Amino acid sequence: MTPFRFGVDYYPEQWPRARWESDAQLMREAGFNVVRLAEFAWARLEPQEGTFDFGWLDEAMAVLERHGIAVVLGTPTASPPPWVYAQNPAMFRTGPDGVRLPYGHRRGYSPHHPEYRAHARRVVTAMATHYAVHPAVLGWQIDNEFGDRDYGPAAQEAFGRWLQARYLTLGALNSAWGTEFWSHTYSAWSQIPTPLAHAAPHNPGLGLDFARFSSAAYAEFQGEQIEILRRLAPGQKITHNLMGFSPEQLDYFELARDLDWVSWDNYPRMWWNVYAGDDPARVALSHATMRGMKRQNFWVMEQQSGPGGWQMVVPQPRPGELRLWAMQAVAHGADGIVFFRFRTARHGAEQYWHGLLEHDGRPGRRYQEVKALGEEIAPLGTRLVGSKVQAPVAMLLSYEARFALQVQQNHPSLSYAEQFGYWYRALHTRNVGVDVLEPLEDLSGYALVIAPLLHVVSPEIAHALERYVHGGGTLVLTARSGVKDFENAVVDAPLPGLLRRLCGVQVEEYDSLIGLENGVTLEHGGKALTVNIWCDVLELEGAEVLGRYAHDYYAGRAAVTRHRYGAGQTVYVGALGDLALPEALTHWLLEQCNVQPLLETPPGVEATVRSSESGAFLFVLNHTQKSQTLRLPEPWQDAWGDTLILEPYGVRVLERVGVSQGVRVG
User: Which of 152, 382, 499, 601 could pair covalently with 605 via S-S, beta carbons 3.0-4.6 A apart?
Assistant: First the structure.
């Protein structure tokens, strides 16, 4: 039986050899059974081209192995040594401003440059050959946190080849992009630019295809490394550490396809979110997204273990929060938790990116809390193996739509990620489980499917959604859906385009609310709601009205509709604003779909279930600084009483053996 993996990221190359043994002992005492190594050690592994030194890594792995700790090895291609850059600076990325990055950070390479790809293949081949049968190697992590687009000469050349493979002829490309506009008809593949920021606005077809191309380049770069590892080190599993829901520049479904398992890097409190307050729904959405990449459980490869920061330092995790954050991941389907990092670095850019040990190597409060968590995880993890989150609701994540709305935002406050998050948060606060899936996934098992801002729609997607609704499902679509075809051209039919028959409405016109500070009011269920981003003025074509606009020139017109289609129904939400509208609609939708929340909890308290044929686990997590009291649902209370008291940042895991069918999950 595969054990639950509990571990830490470790950098032996940054510490004296004399310290390795005591570090490994502290790891073992904390209950760690896995360590990630070497993902930033290229300069130590290959100090000069073609000359490799694995002796130090062999020794570090031997120390860990003596303490019963397995290893995930990182391919070190995210941070090449200076001698690589010195050979040819053109191997490094050019930003959207047209300026090539100087050496000094990580992930500065161009994924398109053939010389860099050759360097990467060489070091990965050497590592795979050396560690192909090493007993401590559990698996591999490819590179580190793929992401940034390259706009330089190597990218432009590769973009031309990619477009030629996609369209075959310039005539087909010119037709798809509509290049007669502004006389942009191309007569050679080399004429097609990368969409530099200072040259905007670009042709929307070019913009969307460049986003696709940039994402595909990382998948191809990863694929080269996967091929080497599978050929030379068969049997060793492969992952990459993704970045949850947030990144805007990669299609994670494409990237995850060739991986054996998905992992991601979870930092609940950093400077980009600390000022808005900690948001458990935001983190839960990332967990759900990672779980949906392959519809299986995942790992957290970097779990925040202290205050983070490069130039700035964010607040310390409060007592109990490290356990809370880790257990939230487990509650949402994590089968592995790896803390970043073991000891806080004394040198380099991440001196203030704190680990479990302080700069001086002392095991302080944070280490002791994680050690206590290790004692808790050890018996629980064994019983968790094979259990999964079961969700009655799916949300459709379309990277095509996300990319297209980067090219043309439509409204300064319109964000695909934010609108998606509003709908997820409305479900999360009610303790309703959500799977995050691709639009073409099988949706037949879900009572409710929500697809915010499904901006780019192919005939295949439209037909798949029609099958789902016709078969009895409830689908929610929003304004700015069905607007574009797959070449990012506006459809030549009334909106919502290919989704019009399914929705039973057409968009007579739309109103972007830029500059309208008070927004527009609509009425739904006897409540007045204000939206401040977008309004579709709808003409009914078989749908019924659920909500109407209350003022402006379209007062009285339909804003929210429902259309019966086959055995199911489609709800079209023609207005976009903040969280208020999804919140107001969610309660009604759950009643319509007969989806019961797992249990009612006070604000800031989260509940979810992992279950299997042998039983189920109820996780209740208090994300607040005060004690919380709640009543347990009926399937649990006969064994545990009917009341649960949670301390600040407290977590309870309640187990029911052999009664998983009696537990209402969601």
Answer: 601
Q: What pLDDT does 86 receive?
A: 95
Among candidate residues 145, 400, 466, 606, the one labeled active-site is 145
Instruction: Please pick, among 302, 369, 441, 466, the residue that the annotation labels catalytic.
Output: 302
591 catalytic, yes or no? Answer: no
| Contact by Cβ (8 Å): 603, 648 | no
User: In angstroms, rounded to a whole number, what is the distance separating the alpha carbons of residues 212 and 97?
Assistant: 19
pLDDT of 506-537, one tens digit each? Answer: 999 999 999 887 788 888 888 899 999 999 99
CB 393 within 8 A of CB 435: yes
Alpha carbon separation from 599 to 240, 440, 447, 587, 615 (Å, rounded):
35, 31, 18, 14, 18
| Separation of alpha carbons 635 and 617, rounded Å | 11
Question: What residue type is 269 in one-letter code?
Answer: R
Strand order in the sheet with 70-74: 237-239, 137-141, 70-74, 34-37, 5-9, 334-340, 298-304, 263-266, 241-242
User: Helix or strand or coil: residue 303?
Assistant: strand
CA angle 624–630–631, rounded 5-degree value: 160
* Domain boundaries, given as residue ranges, for the chain: 5-149+233-385, 393-592, 605-662
234 exposed, middle or buried (CB, 10 Å; 0-12, 13-18, 19+)?
A: exposed
Residue 216 to residue 221: CA distance in whole angstroms:
9
Query: Which of 295, 245, 294 has its CA nearest to residue 265?
Result: 245
Q: Does domain 393-592 have CATH number 3.40.50.880?
A: yes
Q: How many CB atoms lie within 10 A of CB 501?
A: 15
Backbone φ/ψ region at 486: left (φ over 0), alpha (ψ -120 to 50), beta: alpha
pLDDT surpasses 70 at 439: yes
Going by C-beta distance under 8 Å and a sequence separation of 6 or more, which residues neighbour residue 362?
Answer: none
CATH 3.20.20.80 is held by the domain 5-149+233-385 = yes
Q: What is the pLDDT of residues 183-212, one digit of tens each?
A: 999 999 999 999 999 877 899 999 999 999
Q: What is the dihedral of CA 175, 177, 178, 179, to 10 degrees?
A: -100
Spatial distance between the Cα atoms of 333 and 348, rounded to a whole number of angstroms: 34
What does pLDDT average to over the chain?
A: 94
Q: Are 653 and 381 in contact (CB under 8 A)?
A: no
The first and second tokens of residue 196, run together, are 């530099």
- Superfamily for the 605-662 domain: Golgi alpha-mannosidase II (2.60.40.1180)
Shortest CA distance to 236 belongs to which of 306, 337, 132? 132
- HSE (side-chain half, CA atoms, 13 Å) at 258: 19
Euclidean distance between CA atoms 483 and 457, whole angstroms: 8
Higher-pLDDT residue of 200 and 269 is: 269
Tokens 């407290």 correspond to: 650
Active site residue 145: yes
Contact between 620 and 630 under an 8 Å Cβ cutoff? The reply is yes
The candidate with the shortest Cα–Cα distance to 310, out of 280, 347, 353, is 353
Within a 10 A sphere around the Cβ of 509, how many other Cβ atoms? 11
